[in-house]
Every structure is written in C-alpha cells, then in structure tokens.
Amino acid sequence: MELQERVAVPIFTEVDRDVFLNQVYPGRCPAVLRGVDLGPCVDRWTVEYLAMTGGQREVKVHVSSVPQMDFLHKNFIYRTLPFDEFVRRAAETKHSDFFLAEEESYYLRSLGDDARKEPADLSRQFPDLAEDFHTPQFFEPDRFFSSVFRISSCGLQLWTHYDVMDNLLAQVTGRKRVALYRPQDALHLYLNGDKSEVLDIDAPDLKRFPEFIKATRYDCVLEPGDLLFIPALWFHNTLALHFGVGVNVFWRHLPADAYDKKDPYGNKDPLAAAQALQTLERALHALDELPAEYRDFYGRRMVKRIQNRTYCHNPESETTIPRSLSHKPG
Predict the structure, then answer these.
(1) Most Cβ neighbours (<10 Å): which of 56, 69, 160, 163?
(2) Average confidence (pLDDT) over 178-207
(3) 3-state SS, residue 84
(4) If 0-12 CB within 10 Å is exposed, 13-18 middle and 19+ buried, where does residue 114 land?
(5) Comparing C-alpha atoms, which of 11, 42, 21, 38 is closest to residue 219?
(6) Would you say 50 and 39 are in contact if contact means Cβ atoms under 8 Å apart?
(7) Over the stretch 80-130, which tens digit does the pLDDT of each residue have?
(8) DSSP conformational letter for 121
(9) What are all long-range contacts of 253-258, with beta carbons under 8 Å and residues at least 24 apart?
(10) Terminal-residue alpha carbon distance, the chain
(11) How far apart, in whole angstroms, are the C-alpha atoms of residue 97 and residue 103?
C-alpha cells in the first residue's frame, strides 16, 4: 500500500523571545520548543494537586465509550462534573463510576465564564492553578486571545482540525503525539467546515478517502514541559500517550478587526474569508442555471482565476521546512 509522506517536526532548545520571533515564527511552520520555563506547574500538577487546587468547580466535559473522538458524528456525550471528580476519572483506566462504560474516555476543553460570549482564560476560570503556569511571552500582550485548559484520558485522540489563530500548545504533564498537516494540503483532507472527515489518520479508509495519501504528515511527540508552536491554519490531530494536562495559548496573528468578535472559541474563519466563501456559494448557485457543459467551462475558468489570484505557489509542489527551522543543537 502507498505510504503517506512523513516529516519530523523540528525541535528547538534554549528558546527565548528573540529566538522564537527571529528563527521560528517567520517560517510559519510547526516547531517543538524545549526547555522553555513554564513555571512550577510541570512538577506540581499531579492528579492529587489538581483535584485539591481546582476544587469542586463544575466543568462540562466530553465523555466517550471509544478513545477516538469524532466531533462531526458526535460519538461522545457532554456531562458536567465537579473538577476534582473529573480529574480523578480522567486519570483512571477503568472506572467504578461511569456514564457509558467502565473504560470510557474523558476530555476537558475549558470554557469562558459565559461560554457563548467569552473566550477561556486560565487565570479567570482556575486562578490558583494559573499561578503555577507561566505564559511564554512570545507575543504582545494586546494580541492575547485565550488560554485553554486541556485534560485528557490516556489514549484519547481528537479529530483533525485547524484554528484561525496562532497558538502554543504547552504539554505540562504526560506525553502527547501530534500529527499536523500544512494548509496547502486542505484539498486532500476532506474538510467539513474546519474539521477533516478522515477520523483514523493511522489507518485511513483509502477507498473512501483516496486523496488523503497525498497529504504530507508532520509528526512530533511532546514530552512534559514541551511547547508546540502551531501556526494558524495548520491542521492538527492529537493522541494522548498518557493521562495528560496542557494549556493552549492563542493570540491574534491578524489585526483584531479581521476576526469575528462573536467567536469565543477562535475557530471561525476571518470575516473576509467567510464573506468570500458566501460569495462563492452565490456564484455556484448562479451557474446552476446553465447546462452541464457551460457549468464545467465557467467553473474551470473560476478555479483558474482563484488559483492565479490567491495561491502562494503551485499547490502540487513539495513544501519543506525552511532551513531556519532545522534542528538546533542542544
């Protein structure tokens, strides 16, 4: 069987603000940042400490009878638990108390105080735990959008998706595998909104998704204390190799007015892109009034014009990580 091309995400050590801004950030490619000071959280955030410090604040969590969660087909349920109870369950491999099955999986993606209006902010939802976490100062404070607390059971795998803002994934405890795909491979990922329909990226159904094999996969395994820079629009899929705790820090890469102000999750397309997609839908509906051969003719002309106006380079050309992102010794 034809194999998907794989590339190792480069690892940087001894990264400070200058190294990040001058050597990592301009490349717009993922990078593992190792040795950045995340604060005492790396040593303190045991199950017992999290449960005691986080207390009984209620949290809304994902619960699934299978570890491979599918957002498009909703193979999970939402339940509310006290935070301390959730942490204990998420750290277990088999449960005496459960909703669906003894070996069910748990996942927390923290929300704002008003989930429909406010982005998540670790310092507001979990102020005591936030004192243990040092947010890397790799971006201007006024660009900050959200800090998302993430806790997952061992073996939990999240669907492939993209975000419209740059972010740093801080892996505080546990190990996590991350697979990423470049924005230029969007045509091979069978998108439904911002998510890929290819759920099993390790053993994909190539009869159903034959183009998926053409997407280049970028791989890394995050160790406790690692940071992963995920540029906006890069697709990512995570697999918890252990019970794990992390924090995602998102910031605005574009001017603030480019984003939908009513989006507390930071995953809605920028306003200009959303308007362009709506205009495209209207154009396609207009072409529906023509016979098939005319739709084909004018559709091809539209595709060519879009390619000429918007593509940065040939979409079929190979993309390699720039020399500035090669492995740094240390």
Answers:
(1) 160
(2) 96
(3) helix
(4) exposed
(5) 11
(6) no
(7) 999 999 999 999 999 999 999 999 999 999 999 998 899 999 999 999 999
(8) B
(9) 253/143, 253/165, 253/166
(10) 38
(11) 10
In whole angstroms, give the CA distance from residue 139 to residue 168: 11
pLDDT for 323: 38
- Single out the residue of 49, 76, 45, 46 nearest to residue 61, CA to CA: 76
pLDDT of residue 313: 65
Please compute the mean of the pLDDT values over residues 200-222 and round it to a whole number.
96
What number is the average pLDDT over the span 209-237? Answer: 97
The burial class, CB within 10 Å (0-12 / 13-18 / 19+), for 143 is middle
Give the dihedral sign, CA 255/261/266/270: negative
Question: Is 107 within 8 Å of 125 (Cβ atoms)?
Answer: no
Mean per-residue pLDDT for 60-72?
95
pTM to 2 decimals? 0.91
- Other CB atoms within a 10 A radius of the CB of residue 186 amount to 16
Q: Of the candidates 203, 200, 184, 195, which has an alpha carbon nearest to the alpha carbon of residue 160?
A: 195
Model confidence at 312, in pLDDT bands (50, 70, 90)? confident
Cα→Cα distances 287→260, 293, 294, 296, Å: 29, 11, 8, 9
H/E run at residue 43: helix 41-44
Query: Can you tell me the distance from the alpha carbon of 298 to that of 293, in angstroms, rounded to the nearest whole number?
Result: 9
Please tell me whether residue 31 adopts helix, strand or coil conformation: strand
* Mean pLDDT computed over every residue of the chain: 93
In 3D space, the residue among 67, 18, 1, 17 whose CA is nearest the CA of residue 244 turns out to be: 67
Ranges assigned E (strand) in 204-277: 217-222, 226-230, 235-240, 244-251
